[in-house]
Design goal:
It contains 14 helices and 15 strands. The strands form three sheets. The chain has a seven-stranded mixed β-sheet, with helices on both faces. It has 393 residues and is α/β, with parallel strands linked by helices. It binds pyridoxal-5'-phosphate (PLP).
Length: 393
């Protein structure tokens, strides 16, 4: 039976960055949005707003904040109040505000690489020091899994002769797809408490959990963690409305929240009214059936991809992501054998007319890798894999 997610939607007729960054004969499997239509309740509400005709300023966000707080309660039994919720125009904006209000130049921001590239720009923008706790790569029959190496993590704290002021956490992790366990999250929270480090936790992928995995917001792990956390969430990745640019910072510490709001006001940051509508509908729960179907489809795509790589590309290693629609592929053996050349993004565009994210942009641990976006109809996925095969032939 065909799934709604099998439908091919022409995105070249839109302004999609994913579909226009490379020449038209290149199949894009890079930037992290999906090639699926958003759920119909969201589209219906947006049509309704457009139909009204007037798209003026909006500042009445109380209902939206209540909806966000209620979703945290429902999903995680996490007691968030509407007043703890601060809308932001995006999560990258959110973690940059966090760094601006909390860190001083020459202090450190700790990250776990390989990681979403904007995590490495914050330090440049704030004059802070990048402190890297590289994740540990574990290989089991060509399947990659990433874990925290606790010695590496502890050694990275206050490294580079700088006091660690903020830990920028990616939970679940992009690009490895790791869902951190309660024990891991508790241990991170304890280290941050002991060393007096602010936690800024980017949880944008928290509802894209495959195989029934469970997400734990770090702020929900203890009252102490809640008091030192800025948690960033959004409907954007989950319901594929990233272009509407609305996210939320959940900040339960009043002093930190006031600073965060003051900084956003001074920068005159606003969120857009169509994004409010989409977020309200998405997080209200009426799209949860759509999400359930999506997660099944993504897990099937992931399984197809992992099996295809195992069967067709000897020497290539791949993650079996527990979350997200992003896989992480290791070509280092093929590079050593001289079968592929770097940069890998250029190699695959040139030889196979298919575009992936270049691994080196994800920082240390990204050399020899590409990130593969499997948030697309199965037919597109097959096409991407066949193009990869042509490149590797
Ligand atoms: C971990 C992570 N954070 C943030 C973003 C982007 O968030 P926004 O568009 O809301 O700034 C992405 C997009 O891929 C991401 O993977």
């Amino acid at each position: 039976m065909l799934s709604q997610f099998d439908k091919i939607i022409d995105r070249r007729s839109s302004n999609s960055i994913k579909w226009h960054a490379f020449p038209d004969d290149v199949l894009p499997m890079w930037v992290a949005d999906m090639d699926f239509a958003a759920p119909s309740p969201i589209l219906g509400a947006l049509h309704g707003a457009i139909g009204h005709g007037v798209l003026g300023y909006e500042f009445q966000l109380e209902k939206l904040k209540e909806i966000v707080a209620a979703r945290m309660q429902k999903l995680y039994d996490w007691d968030v109040k509407a007043e703890d919720v601060v809308p932001v125009p995006g999560l990258v904006t959110g973690f940059n505000i966090a760094a601006r209000i909390h860190t001083k130049p020459a202090e450190g921001i700790l990250i776990q690489t390989p990681v979403y590239p904007p995590f490495m720009k914050v330090q440049e923008y704030t004059g802070t020091v990048t402190q890297i706790a590289e994740l540990k790569k574990v290989v089991n029959e060509e399947i990659l899994h990433y874990e925290i190496d606790w010695d590496v993590f502890e050694n990275a704290v206050h490294s580079e002769d700088a006091k660690t002021s903020m830990f920028l956490f990616c939970n679940p992790h992009n690009p490895t797809g790791t869902v951190y366990s309660g024990d891991d999250i508790k241990r991170i929270a304890d280290i941050c408490e002991r060393e007096d480090i602010l936690i800024c936790s980017d949880e944008i992928h928290s509802e894209l959990l495959l195989d029934g995995n469970k997400h734990i917001p770090i702020a929900a792990i203890s009252p102490e963690a809640a008091q030192r956390s800025i948690t960033l969430i959004a409907a954007s990745k989950t319901f594929n409305v990233a272009g509407l640019f609305v996210g939320f910072a959940i900040i339960q510490n009043e002093e930190i929240r006031k600073k965060f709001i003051k900084e956003s006001q001074e920068m005159t940051l606003h969120t857009n009214s169509l994004g409010h509508i989409a977020s309200e509908v998405a997080l209200s729960g009426v799209c949860d059936d759509w999400l359930e179907e999506l997660l099944i489809y993504l897990a099937e795509n992931r399984d197809f991809l992992v099996n295809y790589v195992k069967e067709n590309f000897p020497g290539v290693r791949i993650t079996n992501p527990e979350s997200t629609f992003l896989a992480w592929l290791d070509f280092s053996t093929l590079i050593e054998q001289g079968k592929v050349t770097t940069p890998l993004q250029d190699f695959f565009i040139e030889k196979g007319k298919v575009a992936f994210n270049e691994g080196t942009t994800f920082g240390p641990g990204g050399e020899g890798f590409v990130r593969f976006n499997f948030g697309c109809p199965r037919e597109t996925l097959v096409e991407g894999l066949e193009r990869m095969k042509v490149a590797l032939a």
